[in-house]
Design goal:
Layout: H1 2-11, H2 18-38, H3 46-57, E1 68-72, H4 80-86, E2 91-95, H5 99-111, E3 117-120, E4 134-138, H6 143-149, E5 159-164, H7 168-175, E6 180-186, E7 189-195
Parallel strand pairs: 1-2, 1-4, 2-3, 4-5
Antiparallel strand pairs: 5-7, 6-7
Helix pairs in contact: 1-3, 2-3
Length: 199
C-alpha cells in the first residue's frame, strides 16, 4: 500500500511528509481489512483505495488549509478523513449517519491518533455548529441540495468543495444564481470550488 501510494502521490506532484504518508498507508491497510467484514465501501483493492486517496487529496494543491472543515457523508473516509491527515491544523467534522461507517471513522481516528477529527453520527441538517470555513462532500447529492442542507452551518465566508462527475455543469445551471466558482478537472473528477463572492 505504502509504495503504491508513494508512486501515485509523486505522479500527481503532491508532496507530503513521511509521517503523513505512513498514516495514509495505514488508513488504506486498515480499510482493506475492515471492509472484508463490514463492507463499508466498494473499494476492495489496494489500487482502488489509493485512487480514492489521491482523488481526496488533489484539492490540497489548489485550496489553502481551512481553520474548520465539515465533510458531508464521509462514508469510509473520503474525502474528509483523508484531508484531516494532511490538514492537521484544521478542526474537521465528519458527518456520517450510517452506523457501520461512523464506527469505522471512530476506529480509524483513534488508530491514527487524529486529534483534530470529530464525528457527527447523524444527518448533516441536524448539526448545530458555528459556520465552517470549508464544507466538502463527495457523491452525496446534487449541489443545490448540499447548499440547502448546510445553510445553518455556513455563512458568506464559507467555501465549498464538492467532488463531482459530469453532471456538475447541469447542476450549476439549475442553481440560477451568481456563484463565484471554479471547476477544476483532474482525471475523471470535476472539483466544484465555490468561493465567497468577495474573494
Amino acid at each position: 500500500m505504502r509504495e503504491l501510494l508513494k508512486e501515485a502521490l509523486k505522479k500527481e506532484n503532491i508532496n507530503i511528509s513521511t509521517q503523513k504518508l505512513d498514516k495514509l498507508a495505514l488508513f488504506g491497510d486498515k480499510l482493506l481489512w475492515y471492509n472484508q467484514t463490514h463492507n463499508i465501501t466498494g473499494s476492495k483493492s489496494k489500487q482502488s483505495i489509493v485512487e480514492n486517496i489521491i482523488d481526496s487529496l488533489i484539492p490540497t494543491t489548489f485550496i489553502n488549509e481551512p481553520q474548520t472543515l465539515l465533510d458531508v457523508g464521509t462514508g469510509a473516509g473520503f474525502p474528509g478523513l483523508i484531508l484531516s491527515i494532511i490538514w492537521e491544523k484544521s478542526q474537521v467534522t465528519l458527518a456520517e449517519p450510517i452506523n457501520k461507517r461512523a464506527a469505522f471513522l471512530r476506529f480509524i481516528s483513534i488508530e491514527l491518533e487524529l486529534k483534530n477529527v470529530h464525528i457527527f453520527k447523524n444527518r448533516v441538517e441536524l448539526l448545530q455548529s458555528k459556520p465552517f470555513s470549508l464544507i466538502t462532500s463527495r457523491a452525496v447529492t446534487d449541489t443545490k441540495l448540499l447548499l440547502l442542507l448546510t445553510k445553518n452551518v455556513s455563512n458568506d465566508k464559507t467555501q465549498y468543495l464538492f467532488y463531482k462527475g459530469s453532471r456538475v455543469f447541469n447542476e450549476i445551471l439549475e442553481l440560477k444564481s451568481k456563484l463565484n466558482y471554479d471547476i477544476v478537472t483532474r482525471n475523471k473528477r470535476n472539483y466544484l470550488w465555490i468561493k465567497p463572492n468577495d474573494s
